[in-house]
Amino acid sequence: MRIIGIEGMTAQEIADEVQQGGKFVFYYFCFSVLVLTFKRPSDIYFIRAREKGRGAQFTVLSILFGWWGISWGPIHTIGSLITNFSGGKDVTEEVMDSIAQQDAS
């Protein structure tokens, strides 16, 4: 997965932002085609402490195109909406561990 929002930042700058309340999140989006339903994660977004989330586009996509799959469409759409409305799936700890490992290399 690609991380959006850290371009040009050093590992120390990222760590400082995270200490101030920044976080790494991804959002889910769901789309359906009759009997097939797909629930996918977005890229990872770095949300700085003073920024709002960026999940609106994925929420709208799920609302418009997620419901239509027979049986799993509504289930996955509701799950996606719950995650997105709660600010996305927080993966800050995992990303920071990965950055620390890359920085140590």
Give an overview in words.
The strands form 2 sheets. The chain has a 4-stranded mixed β-sheet, with helices on one face. The chain has a two-stranded antiparallel ribbon with strand order 3-4. A hairpin with a 2-residue loop joins strand 3 and strand 4. Helix 2 (56-65) runs antiparallel to helix 3 (72-85). It is 44% helix and 23% strand. The chain has one domain (3-92). The chain is elongated and about 50 Å long. The chain contains 4 helices and 6 strands. The longest helix is centred in the last third of the chain and has 14 residues, at 72-85. It is α+β, with helices and mostly antiparallel strands.
Task: Report the radius of gyration as a whole number of Å.
Answer: 16 Å
Largest sheet composition: 4 strands, mixed
Helix percentage range: 40-55%
Strand order of the largest sheet: 1-5-2-6
Q: What is the number of domains?
A: 1
**What is the overall silhouette?**
elongated
Q: N- to C-terminal separation?
A: 20 Å
Strand content: 15-25%
Helix and strand pattern: EHEEEEHHEH
Structure classification = alpha+beta
Uncertain residue ranges: none
> How many runs of DSSP E, i.e. beta strands?
6
Average pLDDT rating: 94
Please report the number of helical segments. Answer: 4
Transmembrane segments: 20-38, 58-75
Keywords: Membrane, Transmembrane, Transmembrane helix
